[in-house]
């Protein structure tokens, strides 16, 4: 009878909540992990454009992404190569993409530009036509647990930490 649809609906909720809790725990661990000096990060030459493409390919399959979301990115030629930890740069890109999608729940345009304005200096710019951040939010932008409508409030804290630890701004 009606037990099966109820059970299916309940299972959907359980899976969704499990994914949400996993995301919260992952964000917290990424933010709280200690940085012992004796464990080197894996620095290598990373094609930043390929890192963006990889993250965009994953983001397009995220449940928050709708048909009304438009992604714009052109891989620069020549490629922008950065010496960094590939896992870290992808974490930065992923967190910024996720923030843009959450700022545009009904859809919109998300553009990423990547260039090398000076030798040895890579610049990534993420723009969207989402709701934006109010003045009060800007003041504490990189503080942990400063969340907008979604998420743990750790995404930009993690971005800030990875970028500054890598000597960037």
Written overview of the protein:
By secondary structure, this protein is of the alpha+beta class. The protein has five helices and five strands, in the order H-E-H-E-E-H-E-E-H-H. It has helices at 3-32, 48-59, 86-103, 135-139, 155-165, and strands spanning 43-47, 69-73, 81-85, 108-118, 121-128. Strands 2-4-5 form a three-stranded mixed β-sheet, with helices on one face. Strands 1-3 form a two-stranded antiparallel sheet. A hairpin with a 2-residue loop joins strand 4 (108-118) and strand 5 (121-128). Helix 2 (48-59) crosses helix 3 (86-103) and helix 3 (86-103) runs antiparallel to helix 5. The longest helix is centred in the N-terminal third of the chain and has 30 residues, at 3-32. It is globular, with a radius of gyration of 18 Å. The termini are far apart. The model has no long low-confidence stretch (mean pLDDT 80).
Provide tags for this entry:
about 170 residues, 3-stranded mixed sheet
Summarize the helices and strands and which ones pair or pack.
Blueprint: H1 3-32, E1 43-47, H2 48-59, E2 69-73, E3 81-85, H3 86-103, E4 108-118, E5 121-128, H4 135-139, H5 155-165
Parallel strand pairs: 2-4
Antiparallel strand pairs: 1-3, 4-5
């Amino acid at each position: 009878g009606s037990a099966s649809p109820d059970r299916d609906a309940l299972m959907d909720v359980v899976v969704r909540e499990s994914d949400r809790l996993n995301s919260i725990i992952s964000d917290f661990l990424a933010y709280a992990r200690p940085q012992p000096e004796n464990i080197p990060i894996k620095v290598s030459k990373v094609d930043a454009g390929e890192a963006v493409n990889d993250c965009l390919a994953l983001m397009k399959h995220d449940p928050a992404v709708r048909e009304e979301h438009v992604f714009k990115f052109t891989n620069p030629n020549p490629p922008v190569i950065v010496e960094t930890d590939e896992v870290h740069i992808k974490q930065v890109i992923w967190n910024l993409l996720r923030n843009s999608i959450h700022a545009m729940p009904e859809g919109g345009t998300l553009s990423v530009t990547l260039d090398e304005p000076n030798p040895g200096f890579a610049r990534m710019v993420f723009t969207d036509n989402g709701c934006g951040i109010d003045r009060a939010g800007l003041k504490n932008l990189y503080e942990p647990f400063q969340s907008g409508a979604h998420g743990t409030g750790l995404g930009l804290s993690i971005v800030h930490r990875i970028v500054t630890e890598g000597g960037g701004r």
